[in-house]
Amino acid sequence: MAHSKILYGLCFYMLLLGLVHAQLSTNFYAATCPNALSAIRTAVLKAVSKEHRMGASLLRLHFHDCFLSGPSWTVQLGRRDSTTASFAAANSDLPSPLMDLSDLITSFSNKGFTAKEMVALSGSHTIGQARCLMFRNRVYNETTLDSTLATSLKSSCPGTGSDDSLSSLDAVTPVTFDNSYFKNLANNKGLLHSDQQLFSGGTTDSQVKTYSLNSATFYADFAKAMVKMGSISPLTGSDGQIRTNCAKVN
Ligand SMILES: *[C@@H]1O[C@H](CO)[C@@H](O)[C@H](O)[C@H]1NC(C)=O
Questions:
Q1: I need a labelling partner for 26 at 20 to 30 A (CA). Which of 4, 137, 141, 187 fits?
Q2: Which of 3, 21, 52, 64 is catalytic?
Q3: Residue range 96-148, pLDDT digits in tens
Q4: Is 170 one of the annotated binding-site residues?
Q5: Which CDD domains does the entry link to (predicted)?
Q6: Which of 98, 136, 137 for mutating ligand 1's site (highest number of atoms within 8 Å of CB)?
């Protein structure tokens, strides 16, 4: 509910924009709607304090420039909405939680990200949850999962049924944005197969180790990678549209 209100609010501010800008900028709303960012910030903080999962949901939507802890960065504004939506492309382009390291690296590389940026972005799994269906095989069949965590996960994620039962991606500090996701990986406590792949004897192990020991390094790399993600082929100027309902094409 609050979620859709925030999205509505964002759309509303975008609608207020009469001017057409040709590219993203951090002060896109400075003249047309100077209070936009503080209003958004207030609404986001309120929503997150009411419902902790909102932080993860918003992070997933890439609508974020503030956290109660953790990194912050300056967001490039003025991105317009697509006139199309593809269920098939969403399924084929987004990396799967069942992927091995090499496929994860390929999937991110297809969008212009290095393996290093992929590891940094994966740190967003310090908050948020996943469905039983997405990690059942890992819990029951994989030997690379900490046995104490496996036992506790089995109680809410049985061998069959309860596919939608949720567990935290970071079981240690599930609602705090910190570097414990990487500490977990170093201790074989990654929830998803794709999480643990980042620390499984491959080329990304050393970076996971670095982040697990140094949150400042993680935050700096994460912020840079998020800004980069926000600039993936953005629609600007008169391209695309400004949706009256963010969830669907006008
Ligand atoms: C475990 O692996 C076997 C063999 O691949 C598979 O048939 C079974 O469904 C898996 N169990 C779970 C809980 O995913």
A1: 4
A2: 64
A3: 999 999 999 999 999 899 999 999 999 999 999 999 999 999 999 999 999 99
A4: yes
A5: secretory_peroxidase (cd00693)
A6: 137
Residue 168 β-bridge partners: 129
Mean pLDDT of each 10-residue bin along the chain, 250 residues long: 41 40 74 82 80 69 49 80 82 90 96 96 95 98 97 97 97 93 98 98 98 97 92 85 88
CA dist list (Å): 235 to 21, 80, 84, 100, 102: 11, 5, 12, 32, 30
Residue nearest atom 5 in ligand 1 by C-alpha distance? 141
Ligand 1 centroid from CA 130, angstroms: 19
Q: Which CATH number fits domain 87-249: 3.90.1150.30, 1.10.8.60, 1.10.420.10, 1.10.340.30?
A: 1.10.420.10
